[in-house]
Structure formats: C-alpha cells, structure tokens
Amino acid sequence: MSTHVTPPRKPLIMGNWKMKPALLADAKTIVTKIGKQAGSFRNVDIVLCPPAVFLSELKRATTSRKIMWGAQDCATRREASETGSLSPAQVKSVGAKYVIVGHSERRALGDTDEIVRTKMDVALAEGLTVVVCIGERVRDTRGDYLQLLNAQLISAFKGRPRTELDRIIIAYEPLWAIGKSAKEANVQPGDIHEMMIFVRKFFAERYGKAIADERVVLYGGSVEPVNTRMVLTQGHADGALIGHASIVPSDFLSILTIANERT
Ligand code: PGA
C-alpha cells in the first residue's frame, strides 16, 4: 500500500450547517463573525454550506471574498416537476460552487448509492464541485466496513473520466463519529490515516498513483478545535467537513486558525 505524503495544498475547511440555525438573523450573525476574520486565513480554503434557503442573503451579508459557498444536497435531475427539490442549476445560480452529496444523513433518508451517483452526475454537468461523502456505520474486526466503503466508491466513480475528478472531493465521514463531541467520539489518528490511504489506493488502482495523490480527501465527524491538528497532521486529511462546530463562530475560527498553521 502506498503511503501518502501530505501534499502542499491548502487544507479545505468546510462547514456543514445542516438545518441550523432556525433564523436567518442568526445565520447572518454567524457569517458576519466568520467573514470578518476569514481574510486572515491565507493558507486555508473555506467553504460554507448553510441551509440553501439562506444562501443568497448570507452571500450578501459578508463582503469577504475568501468564503466560498455550497449546498448540502441537490436533486437527481436538472429540471423536473419535483416539489421541494433543489436543482444543481439553482444552487449555481445563487453563487454556490460546491454541493455535498451522499451525506450519511441523506443516505439515512433514502439516498442509495445509485441516487448519490446520479446527484453527482447532474451536479458535475452543471459545473459544480461535488463533495461526495462515504462512511461506515460501525467498524468490525474482519474489515467488512472496508467492503462497504469500497462499494460506495465504486458506485460513485465507476467509469468516471479522469477529467471529472478535479471537481470531486471525497469526504470520509464515519457514522460512529458524526454528531458527537471530539471527546466522546475519540477518533484516533490511525482511524483517519488508514482511510486516507484506503481512498488513495482506490484511485491509484484505477487512475494511477499521480492522480491518486492529487485527490482531495477530507475527514468529517466530531471535528472540533481540540482534534483539528490531529486530523490534518497525524490523520493526513486534506481538510475537514465540520458539522456542529461550524455554527459556533469561535469554534470555527479556532479550527481555521489551526488549519492555517498546519505544519
Ligand atoms: P459533526 O458533523 O462535525 O457534527 O460530527 C459532521 C457532518 O455530519 O458532516
């Protein structure tokens, strides 16, 4: 198995706000606080994925050009009579460049590997950058969880031309860590590093080592200021997808500070 040397690219720190906060006014307060300092994090790329209904207003609420924007999900079709769905074209039209697909919380609501693949396809066709999430519910000693992750990767990438890869980010998010505090989840560096190697190996076998090394692979699940350094250094993740800590401005700014200083 090839060992991965952390590439010199900037860490990508993404905030996944999920369904929070309830009020637009509170969302604006969060973005304003982050936006005021965002420009000082020269060594980090920042993407915020607030509830899509807030996107336009939040873009206007901050003058920071450092913050890039994303949606948390999208529909499987570009246009359709589909009540309640959000098309990739709509995501793009409000200035978002990214879309998360296959988050475990969407998979729990019915998104199969096939649906995730289709969402990736329509989002890519629209010119968005896709953040595809993979992750196992539990770990076992036989390594069955690796089969599951492999199946998720195969479904997402089978037959995908190399040219599309630059607009796809992989987020490894184990379900057993999501939504917990860093202390409670107690994710170990090896848990992350092992999966970074696993994902890169998947790409190395299909596209070659050089292309595998260029992939951006994030870690997500219980990332807080206290474990950010571990995730990015010993864990060898190229960045992090942050849930609960991303809507607490002081926590998110601490995470950005640590990522900005990654050594
Ligand atoms: P968490 O969520 O940081 O609250 O664990 C991460 C995610 O679900 O993307």
What is the alpha-carbon Rg in Å?
A: 17 Å
What binds here, in terms of ligands, is: 2-phosphoglycolic acid
Query: Can you tell me the CATH architecture?
Result: Alpha-Beta Barrel
CATH class division: Alpha Beta
Examine the coordinates and then state which fold CATH places here, giving the name of the CATH topology.
TIM Barrel
Overall description:
It is globular, with a radius of gyration of 17 Å. Strand 7, helix 11 (225-232) and strand 8 form a beta-alpha-beta unit. The two termini are 24 Å apart. The chain has one domain (12-260): Aldolase class I (TIM Barrel). The chain has an eight-stranded parallel barrel with strand order 1-2-3-4-5-6-7-8, surrounded by five helices. The protein is an alpha/beta fold. The mean pLDDT is 96. The protein is 43% helix and 14% strand. Bound molecules: 2-phosphoglycolic acid.
Question: How would you describe this structure in keywords?
Answer:
single chain; 263 residues; alpha/beta; TIM Barrel; 12 helices; 8 strands; 43% helix; binds 2-phosphoglycolic acid
Secondary structure elements and their pairing?
Elements: E1 12-16, H1 24-38, E2 45-49, H2 55-61, E3 67-71, H3 88-93, E4 98-101, H4 104-108, H5 113-125, E5 129-134, H6 144-157, H7 162-165, E6 168-172, H8 182-185, H9 189-207, H10 209-214, E7 217-220, H11 225-232, E8 239-242, H12 249-260
Parallel strand pairs: 1-2, 1-8, 2-3, 3-4, 4-5, 5-6, 6-7, 7-8
Helix pairs in contact: 1-12, 5-6, 11-12
This protein binds 2-phosphoglycolic acid.
